[in-house]
Design brief:
The protein is mainly beta. Helix content is about 5%, strand content about 30%. It is built from three helices and 25 strands. A hairpin with a 5-residue loop joins strand 13 and strand 14.
Length: about 325
């Protein structure tokens, strides 16, 4: 036959209102809080402590009902409830006991020296502030003087560029001229011109592939000389040079390059045995190609100009030795 044991019980408010004195060892339970007390035979209910373990309730709220052994946090400290409380701050010692006081550090001794940053003495204050000492040269550059130490270079001059000094050495510097930093930030032709000090002319920067030059003065320039045998056919390629030194090794067809307006070049034609030339796509004066010198080793020189559609040829001289 099953035996049912029922503990004396009631709501927390009912117990508080009745405030009975439990017999020694008698248990009384609060049905709405889940807590219980064990009597002593002489202490009234309201003066008895709960036998249930503590309960963490998080941050204190004035709108929350707290019971004995409830733990709350307030202003970084912890408090435990000793008397049922609603709206009573944890600093009220009638309802709460201090459990854990918010800590403070008076000081912590430590020493670290890294050159430009150092920590020494007791730099951690009671407010938790870490005091660091920073020392260096105004306008200088920090660098590693060793694998574990910092140092500061001397003050840099205005517009100076920093150049690595090598392991453990301070960076070197070089002072830039007027406009150099502007050009490095925006490398345009105009900014390059402003940064140069010995330029001639004006306008835009050009490079060696298809530059557009306006009114340049070129002194003592050299054209590229290209030498080849014609065999029976050859196509002139101006990428090889604008002075074509060709030796007739047979009667040959010489084909002009693509006509580009403004292009010009010279052919030095060396005879090697009475050979003739068929000039492809060349317009000659009066429509008549020149008669070549037939003597071996003699040279005829011709110049060619293009208007973008045709090549026009003219004889510079013949029968050169």
């Amino acid at each position: 036959m099953a035996v049912q044991i029922q503990i004396r019980n009631g709501t927390a408010s009912a117990w508080t209102s009745a405030n009975p004195t439990l017999a020694a060892g008698e248990m009384g339970a609060e049905t709405d809080t889940g807590r219980f007390k064990i009597g002593t035979g002489s202490t009234a209910w309201n003066s008895l402590g709960y036998s249930l373990g503590v309960a963490s309730k998080g941050a204190y709220s004035g709108a929350t009902q707290y019971y004995v052994n409830d733990i709350v946090s307030y202003n970084s400290s912890s408090y435990i409830c000793i008397l049922a409380s609603l709206g009573n701050l944890p600093t009220n010692t009638t309802y709460w006991n201090l459990l854990v006081q918010a800590g403070s550090v008076s000081s912590v001794g430590q020493t670290f020296t890294g050159g430009i940053v150092s920590v020494a003495g007791s730099p951690i204050t009671g407010s938790g502030t870490l005091a660091l000492t920073v020392a260096g040269t105004s306008g200088g550059v920090p660098y590693f003087s060793s694998s574990s130490a910092w140092a500061s270079s001397a003050a840099l001059a205005a517009n100076a560029l920093v150049i690595g000094g090598g392991a453990g050495a301070a960076p070197a510097t070089t002072t830039t001229g007027t406009g150099v930093l502007t050009f490095l930030g925006t490398p345009s032709s105009a900014n390059l011109l402003a940064a140069l000090t010995d330029e001639t002319g004006s306008g835009l920067a050009v490079f060696n592939s298809a530059p557009a030059l306006t009114n340049p003065t070129v002194t003592n320039y050299v054209e590229t000389l290209y030498s080849a045998n014609t065999s029976t056919a050859i196509t002139v390629d101006l990428a090889n040079g604008t002075v074509q030194n060709l030796t007739l090794s047979a009667t040959a067809t010489i084909t002009m390059p693509t006509a580009v307006a403004g292009k010009s070049f010279i052919i030095i034609l060396t005879q090697n045995g009475g050979f003739t030339v068929n000039w492809s796509t060349v317009s000659w004066p009066s429509g008549t190609p020149p008669t070549l010198t037939s003597t071996a080793a003699r040279k005829d020189i011709f110049s060619f100009f293009s208007n973008g559609t045709s090549w026009f040829g003219t004889t510079i001289g013949q029968n050169y030795t």
